[in-house]
Specification:
The complex is a heterodimer of chains A (358) and B (70).
Chain A lengths: L2 H11 L12 H12 L19 H12 L16 H22 L10 H11 L4 H7 L3 H15 L4 H4 L7 H14 L9 H11 L15 H15 L4 H13 L2 H13 L4 H32 L4 H27 L24
Chain B lengths: L6 E4 L5 E4 L4 E2 L5 E2 L5 E4 L14 H5 L4 H4 L2
Antiparallel strand pairs in B: 1-2, 2-5, 3-4
The chains are: A mainly alpha (358), B alpha+beta (70).
């Protein structure tokens, strides 16, 4: 039996969320009740006033769950809810709050000339190299690495899916470049090399539960915001160029951090099965970044120059949320504390025993 | 841009991308596993996975614009 055939049943068994997360406030409570009880009409009356729209735990859980209807679905929630006008209207209200905050925080600099886009994206990527990946390479202990994977599980267990929503919104050579990248993300025809599956193996290698959504209760809003950003860009045609800019910068800022993460895990004695996700990203994203910056992003604005500003906006939005996310993960680790929310899904040998979690 | 055989394309400030069937050997002649239909070859000289690219040209600020404009 091929490796892919052996992995397929295991991968499928853990690909669905097993339980709904607990509400974190009025917003996620209203959404969860609206979706599972079927009282979506009450959503319109729910006030949404987050202190920090780009990190709020309650808002970003609600938005994450609203988007999840378009991915793997939610346990106990009818798939019909995906196109429920009340649920969509509520999601739209949350999105507007996030979009307004993003525009304020990212700013709108004058768009560069379309032919300058690949070089600008490379320059943004060079500036993005911060202390986070070096900390994981040189200093982080296993507890921090486990928490890192729990944070990242919000995205990597559905790796590539948010951007893939943007593919049918493009045409011609940029679309071909997009599909070439995404096909590689999905294992190039071999499910055992699908990046989301490699990530699940890395989680298992660290003693974590690789089931989709297993740790959602523990993942703070500033992390969910990084995934909601991708869903926002992927699910709206008007943001298709931002999805492209986001993907390009994601690829351009991937190889060096992933090499360091792999080195960090090797320093801690983890095996090749566990580091493969990170090692694979060094080789794969060295290819992807060249295609994404030049053929995808550069190609798109050559065909549609009016989209140049949105490509850059998508890239800058990624940098903004990733920077904040990295700082908020790392600060508690350096003080020996947990970066996760308190909750019922325990991590093996983690900060729980010495940290703030009851 | 479909072409016969294997193509090698230079990317600005980045690697050579090779599309098509290739066998990649390291400095000792050992064959590396090539799974994907496109591989990136190091052009900046700093990659730690020679002859493959490991993306280090980005943080190293490698420049080669003039030679690689399509």
């Amino acid at each position: 039996m091929s490796a892919a055939a052996a992995f397929a049943p295991a991968a499928h068994a853990v690909s669905r969320m097993r339980y709904l997360p607990r509400p974190r406030g009025d917003v996620s409570d209203a959404l969860l009740r609206g979706l599972s009880v079927g009282d979506a009409a009450g959503l319109a009356a729910t006030p949404v006033r987050p202190d920090d729209p780009l990190a709020d735990d309650d808002l970003h859980l609600a938005l994450f769950l609203a988007y999840e209807l378009h991915y793997r679905g939610l346990p106990g929630v009818d798939d019909e809810r995906e196109w429920d006008p009340d649920a969509l209207g509520f999601r739209r209200r949350l999105e507007r709050i996030v979009e307004d905050a993003l525009r304020d925080a990212v700013g709108r600099e004058p768009a560069p000339a379309p032919e300058e886009v690949p070089a600008l994206l490379r320059a943004l990527a060079r500036e993005a190299d911060g202390p986070f990946s070096r900390y994981l390479e040189r200093s982080a202990d296993l507890a921090a690495f486990r928490e890192f994977l729990v944070h990242r599980s919000a995205y990597h267990l559905k790796e590539a899916d948010p951007h893939s929503f943007a593919i049918p919104r493009l045409a011609g050579p940029p679309k071909a470049a997009f599909a070439e990248i995404q096909a590689d993300e999905y294992g190039g025809g071999d499910g055992a090399w699908m990046h989301s599956f490699l990530f699940a193996r890395a989680m298992a290698g660290l003693g974590l539960d690789p089931t989709y959504g297993a740790y959602l209760d523990r993942i703070p809003g500033h992390t969910l915001a990084t995934v909601n950003l991708m869903s926002l860009f992927g699910l709206h045609r008007r943001w298709r160029a931002a999805a492209v800019g986001h993907l390009a910068l994601f690829e351009l800022t991937s190889t060096t951090p992933n090499r360091r993460y792999g080195n960090g895990l090797r320093r801690l004695g983890l095996d090749a099965d566990t580091t493969r996700f990170f090692d694979e990203h060094v080789e794969a994203d060295a290819v992807h970044e060249a295609i994404a910056a030049n053929d995808l992003a550069g190609g798109l604005v050559r065909f549609e120059p009016a989209l140049t500003g949105d490509v850059v906006f998508g890239a800058r939005a990624l940098l903004l949320l990733d920077d904040r996310n990295a700082a908020r993960m790392m600060a508690p680790w350096t003080e020996g504390r947990s970066s996760l929310l308190p909750g019922t899904a325990p991590l093996p040998g983690a900060f729980e025993e010495r940290g703030r979690v009851a | 841009m479909s072409r016969e055989g294997t193509t090698i394309r230079a990317y600005p400030d980045g690697p050579f991308l090779v599309r098509g069937p290739v066998t990649v050997l390291d400095g000792d002649g050992n064959e590396g596993e090539v799974r994907r239909p496109v591989v990136a070859l190091c052009r900046c000289g700093r990659s730690r996975t020679q002859p493959l690219c490991d993306g280090v040209h980005g943080v190293a600020g490698f420049r080669c614009d003039a030679a690689s404009r399509p």
